[in-house]
Design goal:
By secondary structure, the protein is α+β, with helices and mostly antiparallel strands. It has 16 helices and 54 strands. Belongs to the peptidase S8 family.
Length: 985
């Protein structure tokens, strides 16, 4: 099967981004309240696909189709789906959906019209194959399941300061007035005091949402504060299970959605009590904003088809801001939800999205699209603390919101049957005692394990010293402490005949803060769709640890009955930015979302630490830095970006040509997208980038200052910009690597434009000098032939090229049966159904191992996936590569794999019939030439900023055979790079 949009059908997975264990979040039009949808009942499987069409959705349509005038709202105006022009164009889009779906006999489950021109439908393999060649279809994406991943923060962010953003908007009592925040999540608890409607006037003009009835939800649950609510479960129903454990309505059973919504737009001065103990008052960032809930996540996850339904409805309803504390651990720019947000930006909607909770490792950041404001998580200067005091007087402070506990016998969970305490604790050993437990995740479940075994309290210590200390609503009194403190308590227990401990009740403490959370996902951005990485993500950081905000009394995790909770995650930091976005919309109604994002980034501060609390954080931790809302309201200059800029960005990544337009997208270098940051992933000698700014302040003259990244010279031209109000100006930045450059390592700097009025418009600069910039791959055809390409140098000295290979593929043809579970457990590969195992040896000195499947080398429209393991001592398997698209076009490359035995598992995720016949191709590229390929360079001497033409020639190849080789580059001493060469005679 041929894949579309950049050569593939995109696989989608999403998850809510919370550092605690929760469930899923999403809604589209026309669902019957209370009715659970029919589903396949097959765990992890779905035959629902999202089919994206070429015309623009109504929220972004700028005209061009005869008889249909533009429907995109003007800057600063709310989208109005009731406008006659919009309704007429939407009817046209629906007719297109019907035409395409009917052409293959498919029944539509959702129509998306406002933020995405697409429909969702259950498709057979035959229907899918036919649609993939249907004119007007630009992408087909399989629906997959997603998992769900404040009080002091207004003061911490300076909102309540004299002259702060709240006072600029008339005070806390009017900040965010009539701005509408839509939250796609697990729903909302409508009776929560953070959403009380007293003192609110009629709903804002232009609001076209609904209050959808459902289980324990009538239309009266909405109000002049909570002005809309929808729920979406058609997609999730195809996965089976989960719905019976939740309210089939917009009512929140989990607590996640209530928390994020109250953080972004909850009422001011709401008393927050947990376990009957007051922790003061809380306020949303935009306390007078109106809120609308779009429930699309359920126990077990969120279907992307439901999430897109929620986004589409939110845009159609007329929201100004969307919070999206949901992600998929994959920053793919073309996922359906991300494309929907691209068009939402065109409709004037500002979107804040969680960066993810997969940190602190590199390249874990989610939501890579430049049209999203991607938010990391860091600490504030308020903690919720408790103290565990031992019988010997030693005291250990940690995180807690639970009540205290007097001196009580203490036992080590490891000695009582379970170190982690999730299960297996011996009641005889723990009844009536405080239990020492180890764990950084599933924390509340550990206190439940203690309670179920008869324990009365818990001291929980982290797995790693840098793990965040978190204050969950535990089932027994609990203090969460550092690993080193836990080990000290463990030693005390072992050395004491009758160990005891007391726990103080949780209380507020002030100090510290500005430390990145260990869980917060980090850059650099590496998109699965082969992005060059010339874009910095995350964009900013905001408070995301111990955020005190709303809860549902029926929460799945944690002690029930609590209307508040203090939890952590980038799910918690994102709604801070969504709420600030609402304030900026209130302050500057004419600003577009790109201007708001730029203002938040260029005004950010950098006095933030890494998770160890002592190392300065860098742009891969926090993007441009920590948000400073008051400064963002008056940024001076902004970096504007429109729809064609985003199309050009996508084209620069090699993902598309039309890129959601009717004509080819503009051509730019990847580094020239007009971001408020500058990232050069591969600086080979010299690179010049261009940026454009717009003056949103008074007329003024701005001078530039540069903090150059180490090993890089930076020149800005011009160095002075004089701009009137509303005027734009462009400048160029030339980067030149120096002999001091540390090749293949990122270095950081900054570029700042300043005027006499006090504006400082700062852009982080991220540069990775490389010794050579060469194409990753090159392809040729014919038994005899040649190809050419250019390389660029980042050093001066000798330059050598050497051919490796070519080698013909080793092929194996086998039959694989279908896996009825449509699931592969990578931790126990031999236990899976529908597998074939290929084992082979890799010799020493092999520069490249490739295994590959081709759609044309299976006997049907099959989906076969690949998982590659290295076999270690004792047969221990280590996963070293995987490829699992929605067809059988799979490829795994392993550079310098190392000598040893490797085992490849082919998995029949979904075969066309009971089984499939496939051919596996495998290459072991040698470290030397094989006599059938030569490589030459136009120069033997490299100079910084210079280039060379490489010519690769081959001869004597066997027809109908696939060959693989490599061209190696060296400086005369060591290899500095290489290009993979494929030849099909």
């Amino acid at each position: 099967m041929k894949r579309l949009m950049g050569g593939w059908i995109v696989v989608l997975v999403a998850c809510l981004i919370t550092a605690t264990v929760t469930t899923g979040a999403a809604g589209a039009q026309g669902e019957s309240p209370g009715a659970a949808p029919a589903g396949s009942g097959k765990a992890g499987a779905s035959d629902v696909y999202l089919v994206l069409l070429g015309e623009a959705p109504a929220g972004a349509y700028a005209g061009g189709i005869a008889g249909y005038p533009a429907t995109k709202p003007a800057a600063g105006k709310r989208f109005n789906k009731k406008d006659a022009k919009v309704q007429r164009y939407v009817n046209y889009l629906r007719s297109r959906h019907a035409q395409v779906a009917n052409s293959v006999g498919a029944t539509r489950e959702y129509d998306y019209e406002y933020s995405l021109n697409a429909f969702a439908a259950t498709l057979t393999k035959a229907q899918l194959a036919k649609l993939s060649t249907t004119p007007g279809v630009v992408s087909i994406q399989r629906d997959k399941l997603a998992q769900v991943k404040t009080d002091n923060t207004p003061a911490f962010l300076g909102l309540n300061a004299a002259g702060g953003l709240w006072s600029q908007l008339g005070g806390q009592g009017s900040a965010g007035e009539d701005v509408i925040i839509g939250v796609v999540d697990t729903g909302i608890w409508p009776e929560h005091p953070s959403f009380a409607a007293a003192g609110y006037g009629p709903v804002p003009a232009g609001w076209n949402g609904v209050c959808q009835s459902g289980q324990l939800w009538s239309q009266q649950q909405c109000s002049n504060k909570l002005i809309g609510a929808r729920y979406f479960h058609k997609g999730f129903g195809h996965f089976g299970g989960g719905l019976k454990d939740d309210y089939i309505s917009a009512r929140d059973h989990d607590g996640h959605g209530t928390h994020t919504t109250s953080t972004a737009g909850g009422n001011a001065n709401v008393n927050a009590s947990i376990f009957g103990r007051s922790f003061g008052t809380v306020s949303g960032m935009a306390p007078r904003a109106r809120v609308a809930a779009y429930k699309a996540c359920w126990p077990g996850g969120c279907a992307v088809s439901d999430l897109v339904g929620a986004i589409d409805s939110a845009v159609g309803d007329g929201v100004d801001v969307i919070n999206y504390s949901i992600g998929d651990d994959d920053p793919d720019f073309l996922d359906a939800d991300d494309v929907a947000f691209l068009f939402a930006r065109q409709a004037g909607v500002f979107v804040a999205a969680s960066a993810g909770n997969s940190g602190p490792g590199p390249s874990t950041v989610d939501h890579g699209g430049p049209w999203l404001t991607t938010v990391g998580a860091s600490t504030q200067n308020r903690s919720l603390v408790g103290t565990a005091t031992l019988g010997n007087g030693a005291a250990f402070q940690g995180a807690s919101v639970t009540p205290g506990l007097a001196a009580t016998p203490l036992v080590d969970g490891a000695a009582a049957g379970s170190e982690g305490c999730l299960s297996g604790l011996a009641p005889a050993a723990v009844t009536g005692k405080i239990v020492l437990c180890k764990g950084s995740f599933s924390r509340a479940a550990r206190s439940l394990g203690v309670k179920n075994a008869g324990g009365v309290g818990m001291i929980l210590y982290t797995v790693d010293q840098s793990d965040a200390l978190l204050s969950d609503n535990h089932y027994v009194p609990t203090v969460h402490i550092r690993n080193s403190d836990g080990l000290a308590i463990k030693t005390y227990i072992a050395a004491t005949s009758a160990p005891t401990a007391s726990l103080s009740g949780g209380a507020k403490a002030f100090g510290g803060g500005n430390t990145m959370a260990a869980f917060s996902s980090r850059g650099p951005l590496v998109d699965s769709a082969r992005s060059t990485g010339d874009l910095l993500k995350p964009d900013v950081t905001a408070p995301g640890v111990q955020i005190l905000a709303g809860n549902t009394p029926t929460a799945f995790v944690g002690a029930p009955g609590q209307l508040f909770q203090a939890i952590a995650g980038t799910s918690m930091s994102s709604p801070h930015v969504a709420g600030i976005g609402a304030l900026l919309r209130d302050r500057h109604p004419g600003w577009t979302p790109d201007m708001m994002q730029s203002a938040l980034m260029t005004s950010a501060r950098q006095d933030v630490w890494k998770e160890d609390g002592s190392t300065p954080a860098d742009p891969f931790d926090f993007g441009a830095g920590h948000i400073v809302p008051n400064s963002a309201a008056d940024p001076g200059l902004v970096y504007p970006a429109g729809f064609d800029d985003y199309r050009a960005f996508l084209r620069s990544q090699g993902l598309c040509t039309l890129c959601f337009g009717t004509t080819p997208a503009p051509v730019i270098a990847p580094t020239d997208f007009n971001a408020a940051t500058i990232t050069v992933r591969s600086l080979a000698g010299v690179r010049t980038v261009t940026r454009t700014v717009r003056n949103v302040g008074p007329a003024g003259t701005y001078a530039v200052s540069v903090a150059a990244p180490p090993g890089v010279d930076v020149v800005v031209t011009p160095s002075v910009l004089t701009l009137g109000t509303g005027a734009t100006a462009s400048y160029q930045v030339t980067f030149t690597s120096t002999p001091a450059a540390d090749f293949d390592e990122y270095s950081f700097g900054a570029l700042t434009w300043s005027d006499s009025a006090g504006h400082s418009v700062r852009s982080p600069v991220v540069v990775r000098p490389v010794s050579i910039a060469a194409p990753a791959s090159a392809a040729g055809t014919g038994a005899t032939g040649s190809l050419q390409y250019a390389v660029k140098f980042g050093y001066s000295g000798s330059f050598n090229v050497a051919p490796q290979g070519l080698v013909a593929a080793t092929t194996e043809t086998r039959t694989i049966v279908d896996d009825p579970a449509n699931d592969f457990n990578a931790n126990a590969p031999d236990a899976n159904q529908g597998i074939q195992v290929h084992e082979f040896a890799v010799p020493s000195g092999t520069p490249l191992l490739r295994v590959q499947l081709f759609d044309e080398f299976t006997d049907g429209n099959d989906d076969i996936d690949l998982y590659l393991y290295r076999v270690g001592a004792g047969g221990v398997l280590t996963l070293v590569g995987a490829s699992f698209t929605t067809t059988s076009a799979e490829l795994i490359d392993l550079a310098k794999p190392g000598a040893g035995t490797y085992r490849l598992y082919a998995h029949g995720f979904e075969t066309d019939g009971a089984d499939a016949v496939y051919t596996l191709f495998r290459w072991l590229v040698p470290g030397t030439a094989t006599g059938n390929m030569t490589a030459t360079s136009s120069t033997a001497t490299a100079t910084i900023g210079g280039s060379a033409d490489i010519t690769v020639s081959w001869t004597g190849l066997t027809p109908a055979t696939k060959y693989l080789g490599r061209v190696s580059y060296s400086d005369g001493f060591t290899e500095i790079g290489g290009t993979v060469v494929t030849v099909t005679p």
